[in-house]
Amino acid sequence: MNIETFRKYCLSFNGAKEKLPFGKAHSKYDQELLVFYVEDKWFCFVNIEKFDFCDLKCDPEESVELQTKYIGIKPGYHMNKKHWVSVYFNSDVPDPVLKDLVRKSYELIVSSLPHKIQQSLTDKS
């Protein structure tokens, strides 16, 4: 998978948007972080130049299981290690698993939103 395919997939979810919020960061790596979010809550971020891994929100129990099963899934980079995972591209994580994890991350974020907003997002389906 390449950055454009990945980006299009992340933006395919209802209400999903993107931004590069760290333009003033000291690190060039951080300046290039593309964040995917819904209602200002992040569900994924990835470096658009290196495209080496993405961080995803994850159920804590599933996170432990995934880290045991795949070498390419680690505790979330710069995030709460209990609730986020880093999924490395070009590793042992198949694209269908990666896409499933992105979808689950989006769904976790949506489920945390007020009911009225959740309803408006599902009405757009």
Fold and architecture overview:
This protein is α+β, with helices and mostly antiparallel strands and 125 residues long. The chain has one domain (3-119): Aspartate Aminotransferase, domain 1 (Alpha-Beta Complex). The protein is 39% helix and 23% strand. A 6-stranded antiparallel sheet has the order 1-2-3-4-6-5. A hairpin with an 8-residue loop joins strand 5 (73-75) and strand 6 (84-88). It is globular. 26% of the residues are buried. The mean pLDDT is 93.
Write the layout of secondary structure elements.
Layout: H1 3-11, E1 17-19, H2 28-31, E2 33-38, E3 41-47, E4 53-57, H3 60-69, E5 73-75, E6 84-88, H4 95-111, H5 115-123
Antiparallel strand pairs: 1-2, 2-3, 3-4, 4-6, 5-6
CATH class: Alpha Beta
User: Whole-number radius of gyration?
Assistant: 14 Å
- Total number of β-strand segments? 6
- How would a textbook summarize the main sheet? 6 strands, antiparallel
Write down the domain tally. Answer: 1
Q: How would you sum up the global shape?
A: globular
Based on secondary structure, the structural category is alpha+beta
At the fold tier of CATH, the topology name is Aspartate Aminotransferase, domain 1
**Average pLDDT score:** 93
DSSP summary: helix tally: 5
- What is the string of helix and strand elements? HEHEEEHEEHH
Distance between the termini: 25 Å
Spans of at least 5 consecutive residues with low confidence = none
Q: How are the strands of the largest sheet arranged?
A: 1-2-3-4-6-5
At CATH's second level, what is the architecture? Alpha-Beta Complex
Strand content: 15-25%
Helicity level? 25-40%
